[in-house]
What does this fold into?
Amino acid sequence: HHRDSVIFGGRGMSLEETINTSNDYYRIQNKAVIYKKPTPIQIVKVDYPQRSQAVIREAYFRNASTTDYNGVYQGYYLDFEAKETTNKASFPLKNFHQHQVDHFQNCLAQQGICFTIMRFSSLERYFVTPASLLINYWSQQSQGRKSIPLKTIIETGYEVKAGFRPALDYLEAVDQLIAKTNLKNLGENHGSK
Amino acid sequence: HHRDSVIFGGRGMSLEETINTSNDYYRIQNKAVIYKKPTPIQIVKVDYPQRSQAVIREAYFRNASTTDYNGVYQGYYLDFEAKETTNKASFPLKNFHQHQVDHFQNCLAQQGICFTIMRFSSLERYFVTPASLLINYWSQQSQGRKSIPLKTIIETGYEVKAGFRPALDYLEAVDQLIAKTNLKNLGENHGSK
Ligand SMILES: [Mg+2]
Ligand SMILES: [Mg+2]
It folds into this structure.
């Protein structure tokens, strides 16, 4: 239906737009406070023209040391990276970077809720997968395979359907991830609610 | 002593440097994962010279919608803003902005641990104060006073002494803030440890 392609979030929007509009919706609904981090830039030269705003005239992209998104949801620290592939059977590890894996490990050690949102754009399917899945495949890639099979992602992650408001209700999947994390960490910092 | 002025964090370093090096230390010690957010920039024009890195040639500062720092500490979402004044008796509210106050309120509603780090640079004293103190004074400033008295900050906040490693051990104060928050929210999401 033509209506679908206009209304439903996933289609036509980039993954980043889909997540950003979902985050806007979550904030307006007081459901969560999650932002994409700005791109880190090293500023070298700024002009201050009279009667108009400052213009950056020379600046360079710096290497990020974290993931793209973080925030707070019902007392939980959320941290995630969003990536997409046109592959149909597996998600390539080359879409991720060492600093993202390191950051996930650091945040997991602090009991953060860490995950990836993976989009298979040819299939129009989205998955929230625990960061531990990426970490496991990442650490074995020199001996093993260079991508995570879709089959494993289906088994280990949580599928999210694109919708209207929010465009991608990934917190529904995060609820399941949190429930599973709490089962494993009974008696830890976060009690069951 | 001359040695103090070289070694001790607070002196000679800007407040931002003091906090950033403390965050580096906390990360290396696996104590917490806290970063300063990059300045949000709108990039208009980028040159891609041959055989060298991309250069941003036109960009503009965008308004921030959050605070400067956030991260995760023992399962808690931390969110804070760092500000300094040369005043000796009170901290001016004009150092803060509406979007920071709004962001604190949103994060508090999600059970985040929200605070300010205030530096009285003439006194070389630092305080971690709960965001609720800023919110209270902020909301009354049209009828009331335009600054928070040092006396009130001493009573309501937690003083932190500048040191060596970390340059400013503000997590010690945050521990006290968390303990007090948990006392108020018994039975909520975070149990006592
Ligand atoms: Mg990304
Ligand atoms: Mg600031």
User: Anything to note?
Assistant: Strands of chain B lie at 33-36, 41-47, 55-61, 69-73, 76-85, 90-92, 113-120, 125-130, 147-149, 158-160. The longest helix of chain B spans residues 170-184.
